[in-house]
Write a structure and sequence with these properties.
182 residues; disordered N terminus; 2 strands; mainly alpha
Length: 182
């Protein structure tokens, strides 16, 4: 049986990989903190300067709507591009910000399928699936996140002194999803 409760980790901040967006930033023109792709594992190199410039446009956008548009444009123009998973990750975060569950699940799943070590995204998906009354998906994502978190070393996008707290927040989110699903 699922009881519908507010997700604890979403009460203050959504943390997905190196993306962090304060929920206070939901107003139009809200600022999206820059994602530092230089510290991320890139799956492939861009095939052209045009593709690299399109990604730089995504990364440089500050406004949520502008970032979503740039990421969507990148996906349309470069559907097999090197930064497709990161565009899906960005669009998932923005969808969650806008309370668009369908968009969050769609883009979140696409990002996780290409970034299987994106534990924060899995934990957030688990909690969101639990909130959306989808226990099987909540369990799958939450258990996977909980399996990976204990052995996960500090990713380069986090400061080593903040990693234990961030890992704990991810564990709370994953436990919430799993616990709510039961």
């Amino acid at each position: 049986m699922i009881r519908r409760l507010p997700s604890l980790a979403f009460c203050s901040t959504i943390v997905l990989s190196s993306l962090s967006i304060s929920l206070a930033q939901q107003a139009p023109g809200a600022v999206f903190r820059e994602m530092d792709i230089n510290q991320r594992t890139v799956l492939a190199e861009p095939a052209s300067d045009k593709e690299r410039m399109a990604w730089e446009k995504v990364n440089a956008a500050v406004d949520l709507n502008a970032k979503a548009k740039a990421a969507g444009d990148y996906l349309k123009e470069f559907p097999e591009g090197a930064f497709v998973p990161y565009c899906h990750e960005i669009l998932a975060v923005i969808a969650r910000q806008k309370k668009d569950s369908k968009g969050f699940f769609e883009h979140g799943e696409k990002a996780v399928s290409a970034l299987p070590d994106s534990v924060a995204l899995m934990a957030n998906l688990s909690a969101a699936y639990a909130d959306d009354m989808k226990p099987e998906l909540a369990l799958a994502r939450g258990k996977r996140a909980l399996d990976l978190l204990p052995m996960m070393e500090c990713p380069p996008e986090y400061l080593p002194e903040t990693w234990p707290e961030r890992r704990s927040l991810m564990m709370v989110e994953a436990h919430y999803g799993v616990g709510t699903a039961y």
